[in-house]
Amino acid sequence: MPQTAFALFTAVLLLCCVLCLYRIARGPTAPDRTVGIDILGTVVVGFCALLSLVTGKDYLMNVALVWALVSFIGTLALARRLEWQHDND
Amino acid sequence: MTMTDQVGLVIIATGVLFDLLGCIGMVRLPDVYNRLQAGTKCVTLGVCLILTGTAVMADATPIRLKAVLCALFVLITSPTAAHALARAARVSGIRLWEKSVADQFARSK
Asked: Which chain B residue shows the shortest CA-CA distance from A26?
């Protein structure tokens, strides 16, 4: 029973990633794409935690921690770039 | 299957559901700010629930500790990133959806 449940969770999280990628590809403006990137990073953190739980591997939680950190810094950098780009126009 | 496993599975299932609803909201809502709030709130709660469920279900102590640490980190950083992003979008002149009812940022200037 847990294996089936985990397969279902993984499929749903993959669907979430596809929806984020759709927003990144489609998004009419640059902030839309940045929102997609931000949310994709957060979803992948949960994905790594789920994989770590299923496989019992310790290092996947390290991947999740680092992914959260890098995603946060990346979003801040993109947000700052959007403001900066507007100021210099 | 023990009681702990069942509780963890329910928590993780709730988190996955919140993630899915947040991502659907991010695709369906009309402008940047609506998308940002749907995505950020639902997905942050969902990922925190998944990490909590991982901490409940895991049998190794390092995984538990890192899951709790990661949940706290996501809980702090995700709203910060969303705030910076919304501010950047507003400053760079993205219009609100025409049916939006309030614009506190414009009023505060």
From this structure: B27
Name the burial class of residue B40, with classes exposed (0-12), middle (13-18) and buried (19+) by CB atoms within 10 angstroms of its CB. buried
The CATH fold assigned to A2-88 is Helix Hairpins (1.10.287)
| All structural domains of chain B with their residue ranges | 3-94
Cβ separation B67–A43 shorter than 8 A = no
Contacts of B32 (CB under 8 A, 6+ apart): A29, A31, A32, A35, B86, B89, B94
Are residues A13 and B9, on separate chains, in Cβ contact within 8 Å?
Answer: no
Q: Give residue B43's identity as a one-letter amino acid code.
A: V
Q: Give the per-residue pLDDT at B91.
A: 85
> Are B61 and B33 spatial neighbours (Cβ–Cβ below 8 Å)?
no
Stated pTM of the model: 0.90
Query: Look-up: residue for tokens 């990922």?
Result: B47
For the record, the structure tokens of A10 come out as 């993984």
Kindly indicate the confidence band of residue B97, based on its pLDDT and cuts at 50, 70 and 90: confident
Q: Positive or negative CA dihedral for B27, B29, B32, B35?
A: negative
Distance CA B92, CA B76 (A): 25
